[in-house]
Amino acid sequence: MTRAMQTDRQGPDPGRDSHVRPRVLVVDDSAMQRRVLAATLSRWDYDVTEAESAEAALTICQTAPPDIVISDWMMPGMSGPEFCRVFRDMPKAQYGYFILLTSKADKVDVALGLGSGADDFLTKPVNSGELRARLTAGERIHDMHRELTLKNRVIEETLGELQGLYDSIDADLVEAKKLQQSLIRERRVDFGPAQVSQILKSANRVGGDLVGHYRVGPDRIAIFSLDVSGHGISSALMTARLAGFLSSSVPNQNIGLISRGGAFHAAVPPDRIAAQLNDIVLRDLGSTHYFTLALAEVDFRSGHVRLVQAGHPHPMIQRSTGGIDVIGGGGFPVGLVEQAQFDLVEDRLNPGDRLLLMSDGVTECLDESGTMMTEEEVIRLIADLRGSEGTGFLESLVWSLSQRRGEARFDDDISAILLEYPG
């Protein structure tokens, strides 16, 4: 620069926090111009540092990054635009506002300066009012960047905490899934006159489906399939509670059994079990969830079946001849309507027949286009698996559904229990 800056007698900006002195780096090969700028900036309560060249300024920027840089354009060695380009590439915690001082007024030169990363220009000789306005704008942008950086840091810390909570919850859900799967102790159980196979695949970590069985007497067994409304943790907790009411390992807690003092228990009819569960859910559990249920009691000696269907998909009997009978009348879900009536359905298994109870994750499985299976398609699918037995039948059923969907992941829990009756 060749002319001194025009100065004024104004003091510090009254709108600025007096405890925060913005750091300004003045870069100019002219000692006179640096002193004039530094004196004015100090009077305005800026923390001023001087550098006689761009190279010296870069060294200062590495140790004490400035909030605002005021640099001459024409300097020996590295020019102002070149210095600005290097300054922009330096890693910094805060944004540095860069002002170029120049006598150049050509638009090409202005574009060059902006392209190097400069925020603003001042033409020489510098007018103090114009400089003050440029500095105020620089402080405003610097403060906004600092505030944004602080908010981003808070967001990052919050996201880190949330990730930690998510990881903790996810780990708990993994363990919960193991516990839920443990409710199905054995995939296949041989009762002599009949064999029972079961499968449970949750759509998420945990789900609301449950299948199971319990011995009623030396010649009878009960099998059930239930599906709690909703998905996730609350549904899974409801399922765990219901598992206790139909427990095979703790008969005294099973509401479907009446103790007679011996090794086996007398059975409560399936329709009465549904009614008791309905009362328990509405009266005692205080839950907003309801559930669908299919529960069948099978007599090994005669093949006689007593069954209740409470809003669950229709049970199916695949006859030894290959035909499939759809049984049940639908009914109300359990825990939805007070004093709901549940109808008892009776049928008979002949040697070679098998009884299948399944959740709506099977019967309402969507294909790739989002179309739900029809009852005819479900029947045809089961008929196609006639040659499969036990767990092989159930695994093939799930595989066929995944082929229909085009992926192994399901939108709903998949569960089923199969009773095969050789007779």
TrEMBL record:
The keyword Heme does not apply. Residues 1-20 are annotated as: Disordered. GO terms for molecular function: phosphatase activity. It comes from the Bacteria. Residues 10-20 have a biased composition (Basic and acidic residues). Pfam families: Response_reg, SpoIIE. PROSITE patterns: RESPONSE_REGULATORY (PS50110). Keywords: Hydrolase, Phosphoprotein. One of its GO terms (biological process) is phosphorelay signal transduction system. The keyword Hydrolase applies. Residues 23-139 form the Response regulatory domain. The modification 4-aspartylphosphate is found at D72. InterPro entries: Bact_Sigma-Reg (IPR052016), CheY-like_superfamily (IPR011006), PPM-type-like_dom_sf (IPR036457), PPM-type_phosphatase-like_dom (IPR001932), Sig_transdc_resp-reg_receiver (IPR001789). SMART domains: PP2C_SIG (SM00331), REC (SM00448). This is Fused response regulator/phosphatase. It comes from Primorskyibacter flagellatus.
